[in-house]
Each structure stands twice: as C-alpha cells, then as structure tokens.
Amino acid sequence: MEAAGDGRREAALGDLAVLPNEVLCAVVDLLPPADIGRLACVSSVMYILCNEEPLWMSKFLSVGGLLEYKGSWKKTTLCRLGLSSENDEILQKPRHFDGFNSLFLYRRWYRCFTNLSSFSFDDGKVERKDDLSLDQFRSQYDGKGPVLLTQLAENWPARTKWTMQQLTEDYGDVSFRISQRSPQKITMKLKDYVSYMELQHDEDPLYIFDDKFAESAPALLKDYSVPHLFQEDFFDILDYDQRPAFRWLIIGPERSGASWHVDPGLTSAWNTLLCGKKRWALYPPGRVPGGVTVHVNDEDGDVDIETPTSLQWWLDIYPHLAEHEKPLECTQLPGETIFVPSGWWHCVLNIETTVAVTQNFVNRSNFEYVCLDMAPGHSHKGVCRAGLLAIPGKYVKDTENHLSGTMNRWNQPDMSRKKKRLKGSETLRTSNSVNHCSAFEFSGVQDSLENQIFSYDIDFLSQFLDKERDHYSSAWSPTNSMGQREAREWLRRLWVLKPELRSLVWKGACLAINVDKWYACLEEICACHSLPPPTEDEKLPVGTGSNPVFIVSDNVIKIYAEGGLGYAAHGLGTELEFYNLLQKNGSPLINHIPEIIASGFLEYKDGIYRTVPWDGKGIPDVLAKYYTLEAPYADSCFPLGLWSKQKLGMSDSSDVSNRPIWPYMVTRKCKGDIFARIRDSLSKTDVLHLASSLGVQMRNIHLLPLPNMEPVPNCRDSNAKQMATSCCNDAAVPTEWEQIVSTLDGRKKNLKKHLANWGNSIPQVLVEKAEEYLPPNIGLLIKFVKDDGDLVYPVPSWIHSDIMDDNILIEGITELGSSTDSKRIYGGDVENMNAIRIIDFSDLSIGDPLSDIIPLHLDVFRGNIDLLREFLRSYQLPFLRGESHTDLYKSVQNSKFSRASYRAMCYCILHEDNVLGAIFSLWKELRAATCWEDVEHFVWEELNRYQQSCTL
Predict the structure, then answer these.
(1) Order of strands, edge to edge, in the sheet holding 549-552?
(2) Which residues are registered as beta bridge partners of 153?
(3) What is the helix (H) or strand (E) element at residue 420, kind and residue range?
(4) Closest C-alpha to 395, from 429, 444, 434
(5) Which of 510-520 are b and which e, b meaning 16 or more Cβ less than 10 Å from the residue's Cβ?
(6) How many Cα atoms occupy the beta-carbon half-sphere of 475 within 13 Å?
(7) Where does residue 944 rank: exposed (0-12), middle (13-18), buried (19+ CB within 10 A)?
(8) pLDDT per position as a tens digit, 827-884
(9) Three-state secondary structure string covering 434-489
C-alpha cells in the first residue's frame, strides 16, 4: 500500500518524485493514449496525473477531425480512437485519493472554474466614439491607435439574428472550424459546439474561429456589411481564392479568447461584437507584453510567438504589473466595434459567451508595413514586433520605452542559435544582468541607431531589411500572409488597376521585391540594345516566376536572379544551348517558343550598371571575375550548358547570391494571353484542343536530342557520386542520371523533414507511410533488369520543369468573358498549333518525361482525366525510351518500380514543390486515404494504360 498524507507523492513516484508535477505532466503528454492508460495503473499519483482533463484534451486535438464532445476529454478521446465504448462504466467511476497536494494542478483547476465577473470594469483608456467620418478616422486613429466605435453595426441584421439560440436553429448542422493550439484541423457542428460550451470546464476552452464560414454558411454574409471606415482593402483586387484569410466568425464561451499576438502580415483589423462581453488588452507596436517570447528564425524569418493563454495572462501576470506597465484596456459590449491598427499587440478574453465577426485589411495607412513584412530576412520582422529588444546592446534603453512584464516564469530554456528570442521579461531594475536577445546581424545599422528610440515608422523599420539578400527570389517566411507568386501578382494588379496609387505601390514594391533595383537593371539593358525606354505602365515585373520579367513595347526582358550567380548563369547558358539545338535539328518547337533578340550579363560596379552581351559560348571576362568554372567544361562549346548545370546540381558548395552581376535575356514578345488568366473564359472544346497541342509540343521537347556529353570532371562533391551509386545497389549509375538520382535520394534520406515543409496539406497517416512506399533505393526508378540479368536504363529527356498555366500563351481569344464570347483557338483545325506557345525555359533540365506530366495534369489540366487522355493521344511517345525499347518493356512488365503511376507518385512525394498539396486540394476525398497506393491509382492510373498501349 502507498503511504497516505504528505508522503503519498514520494512513495507513489519513487525516484521520479524529484521532478515537479508540471514536468511530469509534460512527459506524460508525450505518450500515446494506450501507454498513458498503462502508466495510470502504476501508482495513485500517476493515476491522478494520467487522468487530468488537459492531458486528454491535448491527445484528442493531436488527432484532429470532426469533434463530438462526450462530456469529458478522456471519454471523447478514447471513443474517437476506438479504445472504449461510450457506455464503458470505468470511464464514469474515477478514483479519489487523499494526501496529495499540488499547487500546479490547483492553479490549473482554479483557471477552469474561476468567475470572470470582476473583469467587466472599463477604465476608459481606449477612446469610445459613436462614429467617425472617414477623414477623422484617418487623421486621428488609422495607424495611430485603437478606438471603440459604438454605432457602426446598429443596422446590421446580425445585431438581432446572431444570438446563440438563433444561430443554433439556423446553422446547427453546419460544421465550423475550431481554433486551438493544435497542428490538426478541428471542426464541430454548431449544435455540438453549443453542447460542449454548456458542459465544459476547460482552462482554455475551444472556440470557433472560422475563416471559411462564408463557404459553409454563406447566408451569414447577408447579416453584416463592412463598416464605411474600413472599406478600403487592397487585397480586394485579388480573387477570393488568391487573397490571404481575412474574415472570421468568432464564437466562444467564458474563459476562451485569443492570446497575445500581432495580426498576420502587420495588417489592421476591425472586430464587431454581437453578443456577450470581451476584455481587451493592447500594447503599441514593438512593446512585447510580459510573459511573451517572440521567436524569429534567422534562416527563413519564420515568426512564432510563445505566450500563455489569455486567461493565464490575466490571472497570473497582469496582477503583478506596475501601473505604468499595464496595457491599454477596455471592455467591448454588444454592438461595439474595436479598431486595432497595424503592429499593435492585443490579447482578448471572453468574460461571457460571445459571438463576433472580424476582418483584417490592407489600406493606404498600413500598405508599406505589409510589404515590409513580406520581404525575406529576419531582422526587420523581429524589430517590427519586439522593437529595440531585437538589437544587441539596446536592451536597457528599449526597456525604458516598453511596457514589459515582471514575471520571468514564462521564459523558456535557451533556443538553438537558429531562433532568436525577443521577450518582455523582467523590469529595468533586474534587466541589466542578462541580455535575453541573441545577436542579430544588422549590416552597420546598429551604430546609426545610437541614442535613438524605437519608432513604428516605415523609414525607421526599413533600416533593418537584409540589404544583402535578394528580395525577389530569396525564400520568404512560411508564416508570411501570402506567398511570393501571389504577392507579385498582387503588386502587379495594384499597379495596373489602381494607377492613382502608383506612388504608394512603388514604395511597397521596393520594400517587398526590390523593384527599384530591377528597374535600374531594365533601363540599362534597354539602353544597351537600343530598345524603347519603359513607360510608366511597364515599370513593374510581370508574371509570378522567381526571376524579374518586364515587358517593354514588343520585347520581354528576363533577369536571372533565382538561386545565386552559379545557378542563374547556368540557367541562361542551358537555355541558349537548348535554342541552339532547336535550330540545328530543325525542331518544329522553334515556332512555339519566344525568339531570342539578345542575351548577356549585367554588372553593377562603382555605382554604374554595365552590360556585356553573351551568346552562351565561351566564358566572358566579366563572369570569370565572379565565378570560376572547372575544366573541362570551360573549354566546351556551351561551357554553362546542360551537362555543366547537371554537375552544378550535384555540388554541395553554396553559392553567394549577392554578387553584383546578373544574366539576362531579351526575347520577342509572343502574341496571345496567359492561359492562367483566360482559362475560365474558354469552352471545354477549346481546352481539349489546348491539351492536344501541348501533347505535340511536349513530344517535340522530349524528342530533342541531348547535347554531346563532355568528358566528366571530378565532381566537386565527392559524396554525390557515391550517393548516386549507393542508391542503385552499388551498380554504376549512368552519368546522365547521377544528378537526378542523388537529388531524389537526398530528399528521401530527409523525408519527414521534407514533407514537414508542406504543413498540414498531407494527411499524417500518409506521412508516416511515405518511406515504406518509396523504393528502398531511388535508382530502382531508372534501373531495370532484363531476363538475362543484365541492367538496362532508359534515356533521359529534356525537361521543361515548369509547365504551369502561367507559362502557356494562347493566341486568338478576342473576348475575356464567357466561353460563348470567346473565339475558338484553332478555328476548328486541330492540326493548327500556331496559337499555342510555351514560355520560360529557365528551369530546363533532363530526367524522366513524367516530371513534366505531373505539373501539366495537376496545374494546367486541374486533374481533368479527359484532358490528360487528349494530351497523351497527341503525345504518342513512350515514357521509357532507350536503345532497345523491347528490352526496356520486357524488363518492366512485372516491375512495380517501373509502373508509370508508381514512378509518378514517387516523384510527387519527393518533388521540390508542394505538388502533394495540389493533389489533396484537387481531390479532397483523398484526404481519407490510408495508403499511398490508393492515391497513386486514383490520380495516375491513366498513365499505366497509356504505358501499356506503348508496348503493343
């Protein structure tokens, strides 16, 4: 028997008694439910710790899916996992033990049952106004401070209709998204959520925070309108599915709320409360609240805010703040709208059951801040959120201007050097002894900041941009409000469709994508080649690719910026070699790609841009100064062509992207419209003709002979050849396949990390089974065995690598309206292909032809099987080609690894882009798949039928 009284804990835990209860609870939370059940049988204290409701809430949230609350989280979780039935009596008879006390568990219990009526007071620190004119709002509050507005929603139907009773009657069976600290998506039917609110006593209750409510319950949009003060929103210029999440339905019980945060992308927000009461706390930009830690990853600028729950903060930290350290506070009442400006920290606590709607927006006041936050790098993101706390040596000075907390208990153990921790920690009295901020690199900015204080001013904040990083093509933070492609399209649309805002848009584009630098390059290229100077309409890049592309008059100027100088120079060199081969071989493809007018390198030296023409042959002196090419490629006809590019891909040497030299190419502008922009205006017949034409053109690409292979130098990465060889069961890999095999094998070795890049777009059950699905050796995808045991390899093809809907031009469309207003592309003549052109060959490579069919099917055809069949009907080329097609197909008939659908699925899993996200977005039913074989056959089975037809 275990001892009762004060000795129960020591006797029940043995040597583990030295660990505090919060550590034990954290350890238990790492275990799967079955092991937690076993551990509960060990002792009375373990039984107590293993039956804590927050533990079982965490276990359920890690599973995700549709939630139906069963009265307790343990019962809900075990029923969901099939480990217990709903009527299992053991779940209804918890054991009780005397003689065990825990302050940690008591505080958690207290937070679950505390009454929040005392939080209803309002000290009036946030101004209240009935309404404002637009001029008053812009001059007094927009970008300056929060304000409560009492009459903006007076005429909304939602004022009377959005009660819990009415909403449940109207939308009880509709599922809404739940916000919680969980990596998995949680949804609940509204009627089940109301039942949960009535039964629960969670310290951090679930609350509805749904950005897709307009899709699941579109009638709700009729019950409110955007207030007149907030109707300017620059994101409105994007289609709904292109713009970032911007509006949310919010429903939550007492004790729920939003912990400390700055709104995404430094946008501003308005929030209108329809019923209940909310308690708000706000700090100005740069003032990190006490108990909050800002993590900024110095590799990709990823921002993560570590904060206690809103209830924890109000109960455990707020009471200890000195009067001058307290935030701005207010209690929001039904019908009131609060405005939160860009960059302001805020925390919200529901002190009653509440229903609200909120929207984020970008207007002329915060546009530059939003663009600044998009830029790659980490320093400016840290300063925007943490102020001068982010700067080495500025800690004490900044604390004088910060409302920081006094409690250090929330501070976590030191992070790795990859993440910088910027926190509101202790008061000035104790902060001199420790500098909690790791060092940032500020390129000499620090000296110029001496005797300055933090200012949320765009000129001040932009000093912390990484000037050495190329903003156009460098990787952006995964937490950015929108991706690079979408941001470029957004800026371009603003430039074209809102000419009255061009001065402002130019400033934002300079911050986000360095457009001023690329425009200066453009002017020099135009002057060098006697092209017309760009007009005002032509100052911003077009398209969404990773290289700046400008259209000037009838010319297209592409500046190669992606991947650093080595990658960019090889991109141009390979493209020039490809064009040369098209000419030499008389390929009909030459009529369906842009005509090259000029090409060369642009150097920036001593404040002056200088162009050096180059046709791909030899190494110009201006390039040799910055980039050394190893022999024998330096002596070949196209020294930066395909085979040199392949060898570059196998090198582990890093390339410096800030060298002041850029390759460029000028081509004749092709007639026509980008398919991505007009696809919705085309008829089904038109798109079938497009698929047929693309089949012929891709055949011409894949049939083009590869250039003669030069003698292969020793690889700069001595491990690359070993990797390529080892992944083929120690058989020598043909030289032309080495780079492809080693790249795929490298991704396979880091598979879970690779798939983690795509977030929750891939079902977790498939992530766990991905390694088992892939071949044990990647080389098996290109190595086949004949009947006599000899090995046979297919011949790789030229690969475009980026056949997307924005790289296809269509000529002949006269109207951009409905399909009935559009003209047939081919005029009924399927053989006439002059209307279809493929552009952007900067990612040219070699490999399996299936690598081009993947983006075609998923992006251009959007998974339409009829379009894929029409494409293949015109393609008429075997996927596997070699010196002997007979040997190849005899050796692959019984091979899983050579099955076209299997190889395509493997390439999808190992793809450098998130093509798996595209698959699960196109076919949402596949998210329920439990094995990769189901996904493979559903998406790619048509390829097997085609491959089989090639053997007949």
Answers:
(1) 549-552, 555-559, 661-668, 596-605, 608-613
(2) none
(3) strand 419-423
(4) 434
(5) bbbbbbebbbe
(6) 11
(7) middle
(8) 444 444 447 889 889 889 999 999 999 999 999 999 999 999 999 999 999 888 766 5
(9) CCCCCCCCCCCHHHHCCCCCCCCCHHHHHHHCCCCCCCCCCCCCCCCCCCHHHHHH
Strand-pairing partners, residue 549, are 558
Q: Which segments of 141-178 does DSSP mark as H helices, in order?
A: 158-161, 164-171
**pLDDT one-digit tens code per residue, 809-832:** 998 654 433 334 444 444 444 444
Pairing of strands 555-559, 661-668: antiparallel
Nearest in space to 124 (alpha carbons), one of 153, 152, 151, 146:
146
CA distance 698 to 871: 9
Distance CA 467, CA 471 (A): 9
Alpha carbon distance 613, 620 (integer Å) = 9
Q: Are 175 and 164 in contact (CB under 8 A)?
A: no
pLDDT in tens, 165-219: 999 999 999 999 998 666 678 899 999 999 999 999 998 999 999 999 999 999 9
Q: What pLDDT, in 10s, does the model give residues 639-657?
A: 899 988 888 765 544 454 5
Q: By the 8 A CB rule, do 587 and 704 touch?
A: yes
Average pLDDT along the chain: 83
Quickly count: other Cβ atoms within 10 Å of residue 923's Cβ: 14
Separation between Cα atoms, residue 540 and residue 503, nearest integer Å: 12
Q: Give yes or no for a contact between 817 and 681, defined as CB atoms under 8 angstroms apart.
A: yes
- State how far the Cα of 944 lies from the Cα of 319, in Å rounded to an integer: 68
Residue tagged 């609060």 (tokens): 338
Predicted TM-score (pTM) of this structure = 0.84
Nearest residue to 846 (alpha-carbon basis) of 740, 947, 747:
740
Tally DSSP H helices, then E strands, for the chain. 37, 29
Distance in angstroms (rounded) separating the CA atoms of residues 909 and 919: 11
C-alpha 685/C-alpha 696 separation (Å) is 17
| In 286-437, alpha helices (H) | 310-312, 367-374, 379-386, 395-399, 428-431
348 CB contacts (<8 Å, ≥6 apart)? Answer: 257, 258, 278, 279, 280, 281, 310
Tokens describing residue 538: 């032509």
Show the tokens assigned to 385. 């959120």
pLDDT at 110 over 80: yes
Alpha helices (runs of H) in 590-717, residue ranges in sequence order: 621-624, 642-650, 675-678, 684-703
* pLDDT score recorded for residue 951: 63
Between β-strands 65-66 and 186-189, what pairing exists: parallel, antiparallel or unpaired?
A: parallel
Residues in the chain: 952
